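Standup notes
- HV: blocked on the assembly model, inputs below
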Amino acid sequence: MNKPQTENINNKILLEFTKTIEMFGLTPLESRLFTYLYLADKPMTLDDMAEALGKSKTAMSTSIRTLADQNLVTRVWKKGVRKSLYRAHTQLFKAFMISYLNKWVEAVNQQKSAFIELEQMMKEIKRNHTNLKLKATEERLQEIIQFHQKMEDVFREVKKD
Amino acid sequence: MNKPQTENINNKILLEFTKTIEMFGLTPLESRLFTYLYLADKPMTLDDMAEALGKSKTAMSTSIRTLADQNLVTRVWKKGVRKSLYRAHTQLFKAFMISYLNKWVEAVNQQKSAFIELEQMMKEIKRNHTNLKLKATEERLQEIIQFHQKMEDVFREVKKD
DNA sequence: TTTTTTGTTCAGTTTTAACTGTATAAAAAA
DNA sequence: TTTTTTATACAGTTAAAACTGAACAAAAAA
């Protein structure tokens, strides 16, 4: 009689928390999958997940890999069970914060490198054509590199908790 | 003879910086548009932008609105010019940091509220059905709310520069 | 006022990302 | 080893987001 009511709540939690997870740059399915594992609170197989979310096993396989790569879920061993089991990290804040900051720092750093390389190219050109006016572009590049540096600093700072 | 070389550099800067801007959750076009305005370093009309990026004026209109809503570009008035002019904020770091953190804090806060509401619903149900075992779900909800709180705290902290 | 210019709305199209199912590979059991 | 079970690669499909163009609305000039 009241089972439906609690199931309804659980559904709402699943739905709502999926939205939160999506904010970290995960796809809807990845987010739903993580939430499912997190709420299940015990290791699940690919078949369990496919069944529960009504999606293909292939989708589970690729999604779980993305989650595992970001250390949001981990593979679990259980004697006697052949299928691979996965469970969500319970320390939500730590897991997502680390994963998210890592993504940012890495990406920003890579972009910064690209601009420093462009800066070198500019210096080359200037050496060969002393008459060229590149001051404006040079200044812009400086600003951009500084911008990346500042971003990197902020995220590294946050990373220290 | 060397004009192409410097134009090539400018193109690369445009391309590369667009990638950086995309990281802040803007669409490719919005990002490209911002970068164009930023590098142009002077107010531009919708027609200028459409022409320069080879896209429709409609796309410019909607994109510029998004950018303006996030305070990444501002409308500029110039006597004698009928068309509306826009220019990018030059303080990259400040502009993007504020816009980005605001988006996060707002979204996290809204999600948190949704969960607090669910918590209230749970309490209601418990009152009417004292026999129900909802402890596990309740604890999960607590964790989730805490998670949102922590995220909010972090972003608010960063916001203080 | 009417005419001209500029900006926006919205339905439809194109492009990109997400997802499926078959076929293959890898791993465990027989 | 062969057989059976489970996971992944990949081509193709479906779903979602980005983008366009015609028609409309708003604002300025005549």
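- HV (later): unblocked. The radius of gyration of chain A is 23 Å. The first helix of chain A runs from residue 3 to 22.
- Next: hand off to the docking folks.
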